[in-house]
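Q: Can I see a sequence and its folded structure?
A: Here is a first one.
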Amino acid sequence: GSLTAQGEYVFAVTKRRFPRNLQLFRVGLDGSASPKGFNRTFEPSRNGPAGLAFSPNGKWLYGTLAGNAVYRLPADTEGGKLGSPFIGKPEAGADQDHLKSPLGLAVDPQGRIYVADCGNNRIQVFTAEGKWEKSISVPEPRYVALHPKTGALYVLSSPAPAKEMKFKLVKFES
């Protein structure tokens, strides 16, 4: 999940039967439910939780909502189609323009988007406009977070076989 500029927490729930839907819920920090939940239909290849992050100005919601891509939606959207990927392509790949099983997302104060590109063992960093900036090698990154004061990047990875459920937290200085 992710916090909005208005202080709401947004989290995703997936429906496992067909057609698979992703529903986003908004909850106020005081525990109140927001009526602004909305549904998304996504590709059968996406079974896991969606990574979510908001732009610094709160205008955009970024999410690993379908396939091997990051989508950008207006933060106040009520529903509709996902449209075209903002970052990546529907098909998996290993070059700068492709992702493979993206999971977690984070956005820094400058609007750069950090994507845990799990299938390619890297964190991909993109500008606020969606242009590739750099890659950071990390074995099987799952989630990313940025420290709000220091800018340090934290990555939760699971380099061990999935059945062992061993995770490693890696810190990169800003």
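Q: Show me another, different protein.
A: A second, unrelated one:
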Amino acid sequence: PIPQIRSRAQDDVSDRGSYYEYMVNQEGETMSAFIIWGDALELGIPSVDEQHRELVDLLNRLAALSSSDIGAEAHDDMLELLGHLYQHTVVHFRHEEELMETIDYLDLAAHRDEHHMLLAELRSFVHQIENGDSILDAKSIHALRDWLMVHITSSDRPFAAAYTAITALEESVT
């Protein structure tokens, strides 16, 4: 069984830094989340933020699998999760690019190029895992985490600021 993410009930609305508080692994044991969703990752575009949360969820589940003994069933679960991660990333990047097009985002071409590069790297990594040429170890999981975090905080943040400003201006005019 694939590890599941459990969100913590938030009684204090000011405590938004723990969207994902803990995970439950295959044995039903509670463990800390690998990536904790917080304000630093939110961009203010609800559809994009939700897709980012889904990608974080997939990476947390992969991290839980990679930290356990990989038997045949866990290996199959890992490959399934990697496939989901790749597909979710494709859909997410397409969605971001569509939003960029709606505002004639000046850095669309560069952002699209980055998306193509990141997808190629992810596709290559997935193929290496599928072919047994690589393993999903702590180093790989950290690389995937860094890849997502850097993209959100460095590349997506300027787009989100432009998108929010332009859509707010358009709404104020209409």
